[in-house]
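Model it.
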Amino acid sequence: MSPGRSPPLQPEELDPDPLKQFDRWFEVARMRRSIEIPEAACLSSVGDDGYPDGRIVLLKDRDARGFVFYTNFHSAKGRSLEADPRAALTFYWEKLTRQVRVQGDVERVSEAEADVYFATRSRGSQIGAWASDQSAVLPSREALLERAAEITARHEGERIPRPPHWGGFRVVPHCLEFWQGMPDRLHDRLVYRRVGEEWRVERLHP
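Modeled.
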C-alpha cells in the first residue's frame, strides 16, 4: 500500500451517524500538517441566472444539525441561498486521497450564534465585514480601503458590532458521500441517505 493510502472502506466500520463519521475524517485531516486548510470546502448553489455556482468557504462549526459557515447575506452566495435554500459542500483532502460530499437544505443560524462567532473574528475582519459590499461592483481598491479607514475611525476605541447583513448559514444534510481513492481507480464510495429518521448506507460504483 502506497504512503498515505488508507485501507479499503467497509460499511460495518463506519459510524452509523454520518456527521460523526465526518468528524473522524476531519480530525485526521486536521492533524495532518501537510493539509493547511482542512476546513476549506467548495460550496455549490444555484445563482440568480439559474446556473450552478461554486466557491470556497470555511467550515466554522459542525453541530448536531449540520455544517455552518458565515458570509454576507447580500453576496452572490447569500442571495442564491435565500432564494433557493439548498446547497452542496465538497471537502477534498488530497494528502489523504479522501473526499466528502454533502447535500442538504440551508437555514440561517440564530442571531445569537452569529454574534458569538463574529466576536471571535479579528478586528480587521470585523471591519472588513462592514466595508465590503460583497459581490457588488467595486470602482477601485482605493475606494474599498477608504471605506475601511472610515469604519476604523468611526469605531475607534469601541467594540465593533456585527453587521445586520452578515451571519451564518447551516447546511442540514440529507445525503453524505465518503470517497476514498484506491489503486487502479477502483475507489471506495459509500453514501449515507436519510430515510425518515434513519440513515441508510450504500456502496456506489467508483
